[in-house]
# Entry
Amino acid sequence: MISSTSQNAEPMAPPARTPSGRWTAFTARRGAWPLLLGTALFLAIVTAAIAAPLLTPYEPSRNSLAARLHGPFWDQAHKGSLEHILGTDGLGRDMLTRILYGIRVSLTLAALGLVVSVSLGVGVGLVSGLFGGKIDQALMRIVDVQLAFPYVVLAMAIVTATRTSIPILILLLGLAGWVYFARVVRGSVLQEMEKDYVKAAEVLGAGKLRIGLRYVFPNVLPAVVVIATLQFSALIIFEATLSFLGLGIQPPTPSLGGMMLDGVQYIASAWWVITFPGLAVLFTTLGLNLMSDGLRQLLDPRLQTVQ
Amino acid sequence: MLGFILKRVFQNLLMLAAIVLAVFVLMRLTAGDPARIKAPIFASEDVLNQYRAQFGTDTPLPQQLKTFLSGIPRGDFGTSFRYQEPVFSLIQQRLPRTVILAVCSLVLAVSLALVIGVAGARKPYGWLDRLGLALSAFGQSAPTFWVGLMLVLVFSVQLGWFPAVGFEGPISLLLPTIAVALAVLPTDLRVIRTAMLESLGQDYIRTAKAFGIPDRKITYQYALRNAALPLITVVGIDLGYLLGGTIVTEVVFNYPGLGQLAIDAVNARDYPLVQAITIVTAAIFVFVNLVVDLLYMVLDPRIRISG
# Structure
């Protein structure tokens, strides 16, 4: 994505001949380490989730009442053993297995929600910025209304009423964050529209649509990528929250929020049931947030002048 | 200036009206038939109709909307299906508790952000700054409800220092306050740190230094005053977020506030109650932001002139 903008932006890194020189130049830049660290963390979690069937011999929904509430392997007091590394839950299901499959579900839902968010938000932002006037005003009022809305209450009401179907869940996740994209894209478009290259394109007879998609959009893209990584993590948390309230993914499908809801009843006797799914959410979103922070610093030329 | 204020007030009223309408329509579109939920499962059509007449859902939609709208100016949001009580008095009981929780969290978050943010700006990447960055990363990545649960696990279950759930006087406020404050801390901290860095880099600060004015005075009197403006904006946004964001925390701690009421209402499809909670929350958000805007004008002469 960075390469697509490099045609009209100045080269991002000082030229370096050798691969190792390029690497040093990259890591010397502000934001490089958070980006690398975050990406590594996030990719490790995604890989583990995808490879779940290879990593664990258990099925996520197979229970074993003989092995109920075993602690993690170091917790001997709760019958912890290496058989179940992170212990088992109230139905004797392997915690690690359920967490890995839960991450799969969380990531899929959040990613699909993000697609909805980005398409809607970027679309609205582009239209608003390019056309301005009445259309812009109307769209921005909608954005204001949504921002003033206690969205969680509304989302809960809708989910309860429609009996939690997955498409509706995705739509609700998507509608949660589109306004941020719309605002930022509109702002950047307005900035870009003042620049000479857009004026030049106008003089040459390019239409609004061509200017928007061909010239302005690539320059807005970095900002969109930064918010998208941030929103991805926000959606993962939102999905976990809905599932924790019993309004998201329904059992027996494993979901991180659902596992935590399940863990509440064992909070006094089996600490691990509630702790580990939360840590899984924490590490996943931490990876994404670090990525977003690194990208923001890398893509902001003002921060790059201070070395 | 008066004209500007009136214009803002009018705009905000318009926005509230849009929210009221949107809530009404969305609730009717998505919520099922409340009579069916209240009535026994195999109730006959006659019984259902009785319930519908009692709830006022037997009249055509425009009629319902008219009744609903005409009640609002009198503070009449209808009668709760579930509690058989005026919605207004239910909210009146619960709202103060949520406001207390929100304000306490805000005070904690802003004071922490001020201490850490100012210190961080004076000495970037010092130990306090690093602590702040770590706290931010954690607060941003961890789901609020899980932080709450972990606090209960450690301080109530393991150490037994606090009552686990319910409302037993001011001490019950402490853990929820910490959980909620941690969620808003990242934004507050980032804003204060950035604003302080910016104002410490201004020419007048350099001049003050050249005149030999003590560092402490420069930081707290000169720079902080200029960093206060963005802080006010953030507090406005926070307060709006908090009124919705405390919902899940209230559930975790079984704290009898507006959030609990909202969950109960949603689960019972008590839509007069859901409607009213949504509208009241939105109204508070809009009102706080209006106050913030006006405060801005009082504090920043530049805005007054251009407005």
About this structure: Residues 215-253 of chain B form the longest helix (39 residues). Chain B has two domains: 2-74, 91-199+228-306. The radius of gyration of chain B is 24 Å.
